[in-house]
Each structure stands twice: as structure tokens, then as C-alpha cells.
Amino acid sequence: MDNIHQFVQKSDVNAAALAIFGIIGATVVAFKVLSFLKLLFDVFLRPGINLKKYGAGRGGWAVITGATDGIGKEFAFQLASKKMNIVLVSRTESKLAAIGAELEQKYNIETKHYAMDFAKGADSDYQALQQLLSPLEVTVLINNVGTNHEMPTPFEQETDTIIKSIVEININAAMRMTKIVVPQMVSRKNGLIINLGSFAGLVPTPFLSVYSGSKAFLSSWSQAIGAELAPKGIHVQNVNTYFVVSAMSKIRRASMLIPMPKPYVQSVLAKIGTSGGASTPYTMTPYYSHAIANWAIDHLFSRGFWVQQNYNIQTDIRKRALRKKEREAANSKKL
């Protein structure tokens, strides 16, 4: 009888344990399903904050760095189409002047521009920018300017010049531009700051270690200042970006995962205030395929798994880049 009693007790314990684990498993699955449904709602149904809140059509100015190509140029045109005045900041004077003239003629808005090389990080340039912006009602800042490694490279082989350039452009420029415009945003209790982040900041990327680290900084910093500035009426969004067709990505053909700049920027501006596929505070992943990829990284497999995937991808890219350099070197010798 004692043996039977013990068997029954043991069976009850096992059944209870199975029930508890079953409830935990069902709860985890339910949370994942709900988070995916929220993603779909954000991406396809939920409207973002109307840009009129940030001065569109009311004399507000948007400052855009890296504004003459790719995503930055597209931000300039789409914000101008919504009747925002535009300040263009980039390296090439002739491109800035041409884009400014086109925006004024096409959208009947005002533009200003300033040519500077963000890689130099010159105090005189930031002082001149502050003088240019101080009389304007700056309501939007797009910290878009960025740079990357020339090719996937082990950290110990990377040049000091490229390391310094990535840190100066991807980190210091965002902080210094934000420092210039935030005081006047705080005084008006209104403003929008968009920082162009990257999946490389979401998952560490071997062989692009400095770039990856700079985007991880941007993510963390955006969350910190986002919490500081939210009570003061300023909205901060770090935009998790996968590949977009651009000169920096060196991708020329669009696909489901790699959009052209126009639909990508449309998704960003249409979804301000939503998170899309991102689960990190003050972060958005608005483009539908990027949102699904971001959700998968956050909810499926381990972080180590995704780091290894990045390692494999960049190893393959590096091999192909080195072979291309060898072919170019061989062809130059023939000439």
C-alpha cells in the first residue's frame, strides 16, 4: 500500500509539474503571438504622429545631415512636400545648392544649406551651423549622415583613419547636431529627432566592429535622451534600418528586404511614434520587411545565433571583396 501511495504522489507531482510547464509555455507563445500581431497593427494599420505637430505647413524647419544622396536626400524632398522648410547639411556645396533650388521651385518652401565635412569635426563648422540655425524655428532634426568600413575588415587590420572617421561621423556628429537644436526645442516644448540607426547596432556585426559599435551607441544614446526629452515635449526615434539601396550600402537593386529610399522614407514619416517590429524603447522599425526581420531577431533563436549569422555573412562578403581587389590589381598591371 505504501508503494502504491508513493507512486500516486509521484504521479501527482509529475502531472503538476507538466501542467506548470505547459502553462509557462503557452504564456510565452501567447506573448510572442501578441507581439507579432502588434507588429502587423503598427506596420499596416496604426497611423503615426502627423507632421503638422512639428511645424509642417506652419513655418517649421527640418535640419537634415547627409542630405545630398540616398535616404537623406529623400527625407529632404518628402519633408518639403509636406511644406516644411529645409536646412541641408552635407559635404558638397554644388549639390546642396542644386537640391535647395529644386526644393524651393518644386514645393514653394524656403531652404538654407551649409557645406561641411563631418569627418573633420571642426569646431568652426559647428559654430557656423549654430549661428545659421539659431534664428530659425527648428522643429525636426534628421541625424542621417553616416559612414561605414570600406569592406568587412578584422578590427586589428582596420586603419586609424577609418576608425576615426566612423566615430566622428556616426557618433560625434549626431551628438553635436542634437546639442545645437535641442535648447530651442526645449524652449518651445516641441520637436522631433530622428536618428538613423542600423541592424548592426541591434546585433553585433563581426568585421564591421567599429560601425556596429557606433550604431549600438546611437541606439543606447537615443533611448537615454529619449527618456530625458519626452517630458519636455520632444520625441526621439532611433530608426532601425536594414539595407536600403544607396551609395553607402553599395546595393543597386531593390528587393523585398532592400527597398529604394523613397518607400523607406515614406514608411518612417508615416509611422512616427510607432515601434513597428522594434521592442527597444524610443526605437522604430517601420518598413514592413525590416519590421518582421527585427521581430524575428528579438524573439527567435539566441543572440549568439544571430551574431554567428552576421559572422558568416561578413566573412563571405570579405572573401568576395578581396577577390575583386585581386582582379582589379591584376588588370591594372596588364595596362
Automatic annotation (TrEMBL):
It is found in: Endoplasmic reticulum membrane. This is Very-long-chain 3-oxoacyl-CoA reductase. One of its GO terms (biological process) is sphingolipid biosynthetic process. InterPro entries: 3_ketoreductase_fungal, NAD(P)-bd_dom_sf, Sc_DH/Rdtase_CS, SDR_fam. It catalyses: a very-long-chain (3R)-3-hydroxyacyl-CoA + NADP(+) = a very-long-chain 3-oxoacyl-CoA + NADPH + H(+). Its EC number is 1.1.1.330. Belongs to the short-chain dehydrogenases/reductases (SDR) family. It is an enzyme of class 1 (oxidoreductase). Component of the microsomal membrane bound fatty acid elongation system, which produces the 26-carbon very long-chain fatty acids (VLCFA) from palmitate. Catalyzes the reduction of the 3-ketoacyl-CoA intermediate that is formed in each cycle of fatty acid elongation. VLCFAs serve as precursors for ceramide and sphingolipids. The chain crosses the membrane at residues 15-37. The keyword Glycoprotein does not apply. One of its GO terms (molecular function) is very-long-chain 3-oxoacyl-CoA reductase activity. It comes from Lobosporangium transversale. Keywords: Endoplasmic reticulum, Fatty acid biosynthesis, Fatty acid metabolism, Lipid biosynthesis, Lipid metabolism, Membrane, NADP, Oxidoreductase, Transmembrane, Transmembrane helix. Pathway: Lipid metabolism; fatty acid biosynthesis. Substrate binds at S198. It holds the Pfam family adh_short. The active site is at Y211.
